[in-house]
Write a structure and sequence with these properties.
Layout lengths: L6 H8 L4 E3 L2 E3 L3 H16 L7 E7 L2 E10 L12 E7 L3 H14 L3 H13 L2 H8 L3 H15 L4 H9 L3
Antiparallel strand pairs: 1-2, 3-4, 4-5
Helix pairs in contact: 3-4, 4-5, 4-6, 5-6
Amino acid sequence: MLLDCNDSGHRLFEEGRLRHRHGRISCDDPATNRRLSRLIAVCLQAPDHTTGGRMQIATPQGMLGIHCAPYPGGLLYPAGRRPAVVIIISDPQSRLRRRLANMQQRWGFTAAEVELALALIETGGRKAAAERRGVSDATARAQLTSIFDKTGVRKQTDLMRLLLAED
């Protein structure tokens, strides 16, 4: 039963990257959902800090890291006598997606250009990014040229610096 959730967790549920129904957390892929349920069950069955573990969940917006650990309760957040599990969910690409959304707004990137920029960062090259996205290299080249024109950048390495720069 889901007892509490921070704002980031609420966003994951609102975006549909994870679901919860009747207080139970789940995901779209049945096999991954079974692994998540087993991980939580192991923590509930042995709430002695020796169990727990990690896994990853693939979502259309990127991977989520899941870390489950038994939680016996305490003064600050009592769990009562029932075993509980702390689930920490990390979204390593959330910051990059926010940055790309800001760039989309600032420079008028199309959705395809944002996807290309993200794929470039993930793969390191235009051809691999095109392959990952299921488009031709010529399409990726045209989109990259458009990104260059919009940002004023002329080299892919400079675009990477711009995309990964801190605000």
